[in-house]
Every structure is written in structure tokens, then in C-alpha cells.
Amino acid sequence: MQKPGQCVRNGLVYIIFALMLAAAPVMSFAAPHAAMVMDARSGEVLYSRNADTRLHPASLTKMMTLYIAFEAVEHGEISLDTEVTISRNAASEPPSKLGLRPGQKIRLRYLIRAAAVKSANDAATAIGEAIEGSEDAFAQRMNRTAKAMGMSNTTFRNMHGLTEAGHLSTARDMTILGRHVFYDYPDYYNLFSRITADAGTRTVYHTNRRFLRSYRGADGIKTGYTSASGFNLVASAERGGIRIITTVFGGASTAARNAKVAELMDMGFARAPRRVASRIPQKPPYLGHADDGRVGKTVRVSTLIGRSLVPRARPVAAPAPELLVAIKDSVAAVTAEIAAAPVAEGSTDSTLPPPSPQEVPVPQPRPQSLIQAAVEPAIADQSRVVTRMSSSGGRQWGINVGRYGSRFQAEKILLQTALKELGTLDNALRKVSRSNAGFDANFVGMTQQEAALACRRLSSRGAECTTFGPS
After folding, report:
1. Among 81, 80, 65, 37, which Cα is nearest to 181's?
2. Whether residue 119 lies in the annotated active site
């Protein structure tokens, strides 16, 4: 038996312990419905819980709405400066919203900012209607794009994410989508890290600003909440060259969700290897509108030849020997002029005169007396007849003027270079090619002579330039 004094002491201990438990802050949160942690560099899953359970995504849906908007701008379907007329349907969407009015006109760029930063439902609906004409048509495009990305358990019914029967996704699919947003449209990704943004009619504030401010390295991506979904978040953070994407569905509150995401982020950074082979996800094919012939239509081409497609040779007279000599002399003269043109090594003079007409290889008009397209076999030296097109390999040559960290930088350099070298680059096409190492700024559609001449002139200014030809 315990002594009376000992019982009193034990009772006091129990009372004090109970008071400590009552006063202590809650240090853990209820587990979310589903979660996934992924190494964005390789796509390796570092943690998952109910990752393939179909749940309500809420405003995580807007990641796909914005992805298609970026795609539409890239392919010229619509411009960032397009004035979008707000429909009654878009204006009537419930909050969160920008407060748009029916008939109001607003630029697409402001709708994108409002949807990405404030998660405005009216802006998201207006985006979809502007691109596809209706909510149903845009939802179909969302589903086509999701399927092309490998989001096999997702079905979209609207562009904003408000609860609707059959509008479901998974933690795995939303992680895949977040990774594509980051890698496929890096020039737009910074939208998801802006604490504030100018949405045209007013300044809007990021729905995820608490997490962005509190977690080191966080730079996106999207929150979501409805009563049916709970508090959702797809978040991305980068530390020391390692990028982690974490998705949580069904948090009990904003604080609980953010705490769980931070915990899973820490786990991801701890588990991710310092060095890993980067496997950038393949960008899905551009599907465009459902009625433009790219979707749901199979074209069968018969390879059987029903009739001869080779025209009969027309009777022509052999060219005069003087004409053949003139052609060879002209080609030789142009080649000699290019080879003998002086190049000032190390020169940085940006006021070089435009190339002379003799320096630029411009095809000459076809002589009226030349009425045949081929040389008769009777001409003994026909194998040595050279034209400018055949000697240059056609317009399959180009020049590279550097590799840059973003598409915007590459396009800016291409434009600046084209303005400086109008004489030699006037007929060339500007093209930005993306690779794992960056964005290559190229001029293409040139002859070998045009490419060599342009590079020589650019190099004389100290500019970076290399030629490349058909492989």
C-alpha cells in the first residue's frame, strides 16, 4: 500500500502532467487524404500516399487552364494583348474572383495573372472561353492535353476547379502537371511565385504567399480549396540545384496543409540524390482546336500509283556555248570576291558598311534566251556546270549566334542581330531551338555563301557566330 504522503505526491504529478498537456500547442496535424513528393529533375517519386486516389482537385485545375493558355499564345491562337470580352457566364462565377462585369473588355495577360496569383474563377472561365469559345470545348481540350501528358486518372469538367460531378484528379497527376508547367513554359513559371500582381483592374495577392515567404527556396505553384476537396497545394522549391515538387490533397486547414507540405519538402530534399541524370519531361504534342483536323481524324494515304506522274520532256535546243561559259565565269567571280574580302581580326566596329551588291550572292534573273531546264547529253562538260543553288547545298544552311538561358533572351539577340545585318540576314528566318543546355539562337534558310558571309561580318564585330549545314 502507498503511504498517504506518497498518494498526494502522485496525485500532484498527474494534475501537473494533465495541465501541461492542456497547455501544450498541437505539434502534429491530421494526415492529408493524399500526397506525393517527386524529384523534379528525374521524375523519381520519393514518397507517395494514396497518390492514385481520385479526389476533387479544386483550383489546382487552373494549372491546366493556364498551361493551355501559354500553349495557345506560343502557337499564335491568341495574343497576350488580345482584348477578351467577359461573358455573363464568366462574370457570374462565385469567389474567389476578380470582379469582372459582363461585356467588360480586358487583356488576356491580366486574366492570366488573376488566375495564377489570385486563383480568380471568373478570370479562368474567361480564358477558356476566349481560347475555345465555350466551357465544354475548353474542358475537352483540357482532357486531351492531360491524356497526352500521361495524367491517366484525371477528368476535367470546367476550367476553374469548383466542385462538379466527375471533375476529379489525383496527387500523382497533379504532380505531373506541375512538373510540365515548370519545364514546358519556364518563361511563364515566375507568375506562380509573385506575391502581388497587376491584374489590370486592381492589384491581386497570391493565395499561397504564406508558404512562399516561409519556406526557403519555394517558388510556386498553386493552391486549391473547396469544402469537398479540403485544402490542396502543389508546391515546388529549389535548393542547391535540387528541385522538389510536393502535392497534398485534403489538408484540414491552410496552416495544416502548409506544415505538411513543408515536412514533405524536407523529406524530399533529404532523400533526393545530390547528382542525378536529368530527364526533362517530353512536351505533349500541340493538339489545338478539336475541329482543326489534328484530333480524332485518321488520314489514310494510298501509295499505289494509278498513273505516271512524270511529265514528258519538251523538245529544246542545246544552249549556246557562250551562255555556259558566262554562267561558269559568274559563279567563279562571286566565289573569288567572297574569298578575297578582307576581315579585320579583333575589330569591334559596329558601323561596318552594308555589303555591296557584288558581295551578297543574289540569284540573277533567268536569261530570256535560256529556254531549257536541262543540258542535253551532247554537251561534253555538262557535269561541271554549276549554279549558285547547287553549289551552296540549297537554303539548308544557317548560323548560330549563341546559346542563352531563356527563349526571351535568344529571341532578343536574334532581333538585334537581324537589325545590324539587314544586308546579309534579310532573307533568313529567325529560329530558337531548345535543348537541355539552353536556347540556341539561329538564323536558318540560308545558302552556304550567305551563311559564310554573315558569319564573317558578325565575327569582324566581335560577335559570336558559327555556321552549320545540312546533316
Report:
1. 65
2. yes
Q: Which amino acid is at 230?
A: G
pLDDT of residue 415: 85
pLDDT confidence of residue 334: 45
- Give the Cα separation of 441 and 443 in Å (integer): 7
Please give the grid coordinates belonging to residue 401.
549566334
Buried residues in 237-269 as b, exposed as e (16+ CB within 10 A): bbeeebbbbbbbbbbeebebbbbbbbbbbeebb
Looking at residue 417, its pLDDT comes to 86
Whether 383 is catalytic is no
pLDDT at 116: 96
Task: Pick one of 3.30.2290.10, 3.30.1360.70, 3.30.70.1070, 2.30.29.30 as the CATH number of 322-364+384-468.
Answer: 3.30.70.1070
> How far is residue 120's CA from residue 204's CA, in Å, rounded to a whole number?
10
Question: pLDDT value at position 303?
Answer: 39
Evaluate whether 223 touches 233 at the Cβ level (below 8 Å). Answer: yes
pLDDT (0 to 100) of residue 421: 81
Catalytic residue among 87, 119, 169, 392: 119
Q: Which of 178, 224, 169, 221 is nearest to 56 (CA)?
A: 169
| Domain 34-271 -> CATH class | alpha beta
Is 302 a catalytic site residue? no
As a whole number of angstroms, the distance between CA 135 and CA 156 comes to: 11
Those residues of the chain that have pLDDT short of 70 are 1-31, 289-394, 471
Cell numbers placing 152: 491517366
Residue with cell 565565269: 329
Gap between the Cα atoms of 321 and 382, Å rounded: 11
How much helix, strand and coil, in percent to the nearest 5, is found in the chain? 40, 20, 45
Only one residue has cell 484528379, namely: 169
Sheet holding 218-226, edge to edge: 44-49, 34-39, 242-251, 230-239, 218-226
What pLDDT, on a 0 to 100 scale, did the predictor assign at position 301? Answer: 38
Q: Find residue 224's DSSP bridge partners.
A: 232
What integer pLDDT is reported at residue 317 of this predicted model? 54
Contacts of 235 (CB under 8 A, 6+ apart): 208, 211, 215, 218, 220, 221, 245, 246, 247, 261, 265
Which of 307, 325, 158, 304 lies closest to 226, judged by CA? Answer: 158
**Domain parsing of the chain, residue ranges:** 34-271, 322-364+384-468
